[in-house]
């Protein structure tokens, strides 16, 4: 048994290692091992290489689910400018009837939000101290920013009631997700948040949070708000750029909320449901 380091050992067959006798005064060349050093035979080298390959394969198998999740492509994207729509009424009898041209999506956006995009409202940012810090109170406050359908829009396109996500509510969902994960991390979350984060393998995963952070970064660069913020001075003499009291030119969030909410009611009626 040949030992390497602390308590790490593996069996090497007899004759695989040859030692240069300790105390030999023979002049050595650069290619010769130092006195007492082990010289690895070709057979041993092959075994070590195979061992390394097996370790690499094992690591790849362990990491494969995460790699697949990170590199997965959306399944609803199809060629020639079409995508497979999700109907608010459920899947159609024929998958082909759920195919929608992307140009229809652009036309819907212009028809629904054309006037909305032209208008703007003034908004003064408030101190974060005015908002609930955590727990059930924070859950209720954040939930109030979502319409009944959580921020989707349903429209009849090409004989199908198609479901779309509205980007502003997608961003709100990402912020709410990050908030819940942080509250769980700091042990200030409500039981509802703990259950949602700890039992849903996708919702509270690192890859979901990473997606949300990148999405929010893109939203910020898209908006590129030029509003100027001033120092906020505190009683202890410190100051910071907190953004409190700064006026911004914004889109009308309440109008976007109403558009999504009304679409939800109309879609339920179109699918044969009630408006309750």
From TrEMBL:
GO BP annotations, alphabetical order: mycotoxin biosynthetic process
GO molecular function, a single term: oxidoreductase activity
UniProt name for this protein: Uncharacterized protein
Family membership noted in the UniProt record: Belongs to the ustYa family.
Annotated organism of origin: Tetrapyrgos nigripes
Pathway given in the UniProt record: Mycotoxin biosynthesis
Lineage top rank: taxon: Eukaryota
Keyword tags: Oxidoreductase
């Amino acid at each position: 048994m040949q030992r390497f380091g602390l308590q790490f050992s593996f069996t090497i067959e007899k004759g695989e290692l040859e030692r240069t006798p300790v105390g030999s005064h023979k002049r050595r060349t650069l290619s010769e091992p130092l006195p007492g050093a082990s010289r690895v035979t070709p057979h041993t080298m092959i075994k070590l290489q195979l061992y390394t390959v097996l370790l690499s394969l094992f690591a790849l198998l362990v990491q494969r689910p995460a790699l697949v999740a990170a590199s997965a492509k959306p399944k609803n994207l199809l060629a020639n400018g079409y995508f497979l729509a999700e109907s608010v009424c459920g899947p159609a009898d024929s998958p082909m009837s759920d195919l929608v041209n992307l140009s229809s999506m652009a036309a819907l956006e212009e028809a629904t939000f054309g006037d909305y995009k032209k208008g703007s409202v003034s908004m003064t940012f408030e101190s974060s101290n005015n908002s609930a810090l955590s727990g059930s109170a924070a859950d209720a406050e954040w939930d109030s920013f979502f319409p009944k359908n959580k921020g989707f829009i349903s429209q009849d396109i090409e004989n199908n009631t198609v479901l779309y996500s509205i980007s502003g509510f997608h961003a709100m969902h990402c912020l709410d997700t990050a908030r819940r994960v942080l509250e769980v991390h700091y042990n200030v979350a409500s039981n509802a948040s703990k259950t949602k984060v700890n039992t849903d393998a996708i919702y509270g995963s690192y890859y979901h949070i990473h997606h949300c952070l990148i999405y929010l970064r893109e939203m910020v660069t898209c908006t590129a708000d030029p509003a100027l913020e001033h120092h906020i001075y505190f009683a202890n003499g410190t100051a910071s750029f907190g953004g409190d009291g700064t006026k911004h030119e914004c889109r009308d969030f309440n109008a976007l909320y109403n558009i999504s909410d009304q679409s939800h009611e109309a879609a339920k009626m179109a699918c044969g449901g009630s408006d309750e």
